[in-house]
Amino acid sequence: MRLLTEDDLAFTLEETRDLVAAFGAPGTTDAAPGLHAATHGYPLALRAAMLARSQEDQARAGPGRHDPAWQALVAEDLRIQLERGASYSFVLATSVPPYLDADLAVELSDQVSGPAEVKEMLDELEWNGFGRWIPFAPGHQVFQYVESLRDAMLAEARLRPPAEQRRAAELSAAWLHRHGSYEAALEMAVGAGLFGIAARVYAAVVVTTQDAHSTSLVDRHLASVPSQALTQFPALAFGRGLACFRDPSLRGAAAGYFEISARWNRPRFPNPTAGEYLLGHVAKVVSLRLLGRVGESGRAAAEALAFHDRMPDADRERLSFLGPMALRHLGYSQFLAGDLAGARATISRAVAMATDPVVRNHTAVYAVGLGAVEGRTVEARSAQALLAPDAWRPGEDRSYANALGRIGDAVLRLDDFDFAGAAAAFDDTTFRDTTEFWPLLTWTLLHAHVGLGSAAAEARRVEEQLRRRPAPPVMGDSVAAAAVRGALAAAWLATGDRARATTLLRSRTRYAAQLAPATALASLLAGDAAGALAALPDLEARPGHTPRSLATLLVLGAAAAARTGQEEAAAALLERVLAQAGADGARLHLLYLPPEDLAALRRTAAERGTAAVRAHLAAPVPACFVAARTAVALTRQERAVLAALVHHTSRSELAAAMHLSENTVKTHLQRIYRKLGVRSRKAVLERAIELDLL
Fold first, then answer.
1. Fewer CB within 10 Å, N- or C-terminus of the chain?
2. SS (H, E, C) 80-133
3. Closest-CA residue to 493 (of 633, 574, 591)
4. Residue 404 parent element (H or E)
C-alpha cells in the first residue's frame, strides 16, 4: 500500500513548462511560473487556465471560429489533440449518429477495414477520453463520443460534400431504426430530408410504442417536414395532423393533413410489414373520423378489420402495442357509425389482446365509456374492474388516454343520480376541449346539468361551442353527434324553451333514433299524451337506437299510456324498459319523466308490475321536467324594459334611462311580472335568465 500525496498528483514546475511549451500559444512559455502557482500544478486546472488564456487572446484579436463557452473550449481542446493523430478522419465520419457500434463504424468510415480494427480504435479513443462504451442492449454495447466533441465534429461534417452527408445520415438513420432508437432515427431522417425513412420510422414508433400518436414524442420533428413530403408520405401527414388537432390554436390546420392520410391506400416504402399496413389502415380510419366523415370511417374500419383478420397469427402476436390500439380505434369508428354490436365485439377482442397492464388500461376504458353511454352499465362496470390504478403513468389518468374512462365513470354516476359527481368528473382533466370524445363528454355534462337544475347555462355553452369554427371534434353525422343534439333539445325542454328544442329535433341525421326520446318528451310536456303514444312505433323504428335511448323512449311511452288510461300498455312498456336497461342497469331515463308521470307509473307498477319493475322505479329521481309552461310573449318594449332592469335597481333610474315616465315603466313591469309569474326584481331576472330572455 502506498499513500498518494499532492506531490504525486501535481506537475512540477518543469513539467508545467513542458506543457506550456507543447500546447500553449507561441510566446507564452514565460507564463508557466504564474500558471503553476495559480493552479498548484494540477494538470486539469493548468489545461483549463491555458484554454481560458488562449480564448482571451483570440477575443482580443477579433472574431474567430471558437465559441467562448467552456463546452466549446473543451471540444476544441479535444479536436486539437485529434488533429495530431490518425483518428481524426475516423471520428469525423463516425460522429454523425448519437452512438454507434463496430458494424455501423465500418459502413461510415473508410479508415478501417473491419470490426476488429474499429474496436481497437474505439478502445484507444476511450482510453484518451474522447468517448466511452455504454450499454445498449443485452450483450451489445455502443460507443458514444463526448458530447462537446461530437458537436464540434458535426459542425465540421456539415462542410463535407452533400452526397457524403446524405450517405452518412441515411446509414445512421437506418441503423438507429433497425435497433429501435426511433426518435433519434426520426430526427436524423427528417433533418437530412430522408422522408421515406422518416415515414417508416414514424410507423415503427406507433407500432411499438403505446399511444405514441397521442404524445409529443415526434411532434417537434414532424413540424419541420415540408408539405410536399407530407403529401408523398401520408403517415407523416397523419402524425402532423394529430399534433395540430391536440392544439386548439392549430386545430383548423389539422383537416388539411388528415385529408392526405384519408387518401392512403398502401405504404410508400419498400417491403412493408403487416404492422405498417395495419397502421396505414388505422390512420385512414381515424383521419376520416376526425374529418367528420363518420360513415366513410366506419366502412374503412370494416376494411381494416378484414385485413387484420387475414394477418398470420404470428404477425398479430408480435403487435403487442399496435394490435389493441388498432382494434379500439376501429371499434370507436364502428360505434359512431351505428354498428354497436360490431363495436362491442371489436373492443372485446382488443381488451383480450391487451396483456400488458398499461395497454389494458388504455384499452379497457373504451369498454367502460362506450358501454356506459350505450346503456350497458353492467358490462361497463365489469370493464372498469379491469383497470389497474397503479398502471397509469403520472398524470395519464387525467389525460386523453383515460378520456373514455372518465366519461364512463361520469355516466355511471348519472345512473346513480349523482349529478354533482358526474359534472365534477372532468374538473382536473386536460382533454375537455381537445378530445375526439367531445360528443360523449358533452352528452354526459348536459344530463348532469339538467339534473342539477342548471340546464339553461349548459345548453347555451354547448350551443356556443357548436357555432364555432372549426366545429368541435367529431361532430359530423354520427350516433354520438345525434345524441348530443337530442340531449341539448331535452335541456332546452327542461328550461321551458320549446322553440329551441323543436329546431334541434328537426335536425337531419341518419341516426334519428337519438332524437326520439326528446321528441316524445316534447309531446308529453305539451300535453299531447295521445300523440306521443301514437308516434311511439315510428320513433322506435328509427335507425340508430342504443339500449339507453330505447329505454328512455319506452319509459316516456309508458307515461303517455298511463296518462291516456291504458294501464295494461303502460305496464307492458315498463317491462320492456327493464329488459333494455337490466335490473341493475341504467336508470338515467327516469330523469325524463315529469314528477306526476313518475308517480303514475309507480302506481301502475304497484298494481300490475313485477317486483323488479317496482324496484327500478323506486330511485330518488329529481323533478327536472314539468308540464308545458305558457309561452312567454313579451312585447318589444317589455323586452327593452326587462333588459334595462338588469342595470338599474330603481324604477326612477330605469325610467330616466329609457326616457319614459315612471307610470309607464310601472305598467310595463306589472305586465312582465304577471307574464313570468313572479313578484320581485330578483325573481324576474332569474326567470328571464332561465327562459333565455336576456
1. N
2. HHHHCCCCHHHHHHHCCCCCECHHHHHHHCCCCCCHHHHHHHHHHHHHCCCEEE
3. 591
4. helix 403-415
Angle at 684 between CA 679 and CA 685, to 5 degrees: 150
User: What's the pLDDT tens digit per position in 437-496?
Assistant: 999 999 999 999 999 999 999 999 999 999 988 888 888 899 999 999 999 999 999 998
Phi first, then psi, for residue 647 (nearest 5°) are -100, -10
The C-alpha cell at 263 is 387518401
Phi/psi at 90 (nearest 5 deg)? -65, -45
Indicate the burial class of 650 (C-beta count within 10 angstroms; 0-12, 13-18, 19 or more).
exposed
Residue 212: all three cell numbers together: 405514441
Amino acid identity for residue 618 in this structure: A
Q: How far apart are CA 382 and CA 267, in angstroms?
A: 38
CB atoms within 10 A of CB 248: 11
The pTM of the whole model exceeds 0.90? no
Q: Distance of CA 381 to CAs 184, 376, 387, 582, 616, Å?
A: 42, 9, 10, 13, 18
Contacts of 46 (CB under 8 A, 6+ apart): 11, 16, 19, 35, 36, 39
Distance CA 283, CA 300 (A): 10
pLDDT of residue 675: 82
Say how far apart CA 369 and CA 328 lie, in whole Å. 12
CB-side neighbour CA atoms (13 Å) of 112: 24
Q: Return d(Cα 474, Cα 657) in angstroms, integer.
A: 47
- The residues near 258 (Cβ < 8 Å, ≥ 6 apart) are 237, 238, 241, 245, 287, 288, 290, 291
Q: 3-state SS of 163-175?
A: HHHHHHHHHHHHH
Strand partners, 140: 137
The SS3 call for residue 136 is: strand
Least trusted range by pLDDT, from 195-204, 290-299, 598-607: 195-204
Cα–Cα distance measured from residue 292 to residue 333, given in angstroms and rounded to the nearest whole number:
11
pLDDT tens-digit readout, 212-241:
444 556 777 888 888 888 888 888 899 888
Q: Please state, in angstroms and as integers, the Cα–Cα distance from residue 29 to each residue in 42, 57, 76, following that order.
A: 17, 15, 21
Q: What 3-state class would DSSP assign to 65?
A: coil
Q: Please, how many CA atoms are within 13 Å of residue 425, restricted to the half-sphere of its CB?
A: 25
Report in angstroms the alpha-carbon separations of 658 from 551, 661, 667.
52, 9, 14
Q: What residue type is assigned to position 443 of the chain?
A: W
Q: Which residues pair with 142 in a beta bridge?
A: 134
How far, CA to CA in Å, does 517 sit from each of 407, 502, 504? 21, 13, 13
Phi, psi of 123 (to 5 degrees): -60, -40
